[in-house]
């Protein structure tokens, strides 16, 4: 049987976690200096950059990133 002290402590920790996560959801992760449009533009830029990196990785794995005719190294 668990002691009442441990049960009360576990309940307090769980309540604190719920309160802190609620504050994070309400407050958000943005800063005061950014408008919602600036946040949207920043998120779009990050997503586009990540998708480009993923495409570069896929091209490298399947050897699709061969140099073209404009490359300074000779290509045969």
Main traits of this protein?
76 residues; mainly alpha; 2 helices; 66% helix; elongated
Outline:
elongated
Count of DSSP helices?
A: 2
Rg, rounded, reads: 25 Å
User: What is the rounded distance between the termini?
Assistant: 77 Å
Helix content: 55-70%
Estimate the mean pLDDT confidence: 82
Describe what is shown at a glance.
With 76 residues, this protein is mainly α. The protein has helices spanning 4-27, 36-61. 66% of the residues lie in helices and 0% in strands.
What do these coordinates show?
- The radius of gyration is 25 Å and the shape is elongated.
- It has 76 residues and is an all-alpha fold.
- The chain starts with a helix and ends in a 15-residue tail after the last helix.
- The longest helix has 26 residues, at 36-61.
- It is built from two helices and no strands.
Furnish the topology, listing elements before pairings.
Layout (H helix, E strand, L loop, with lengths): L3 H24 L8 H26 L15
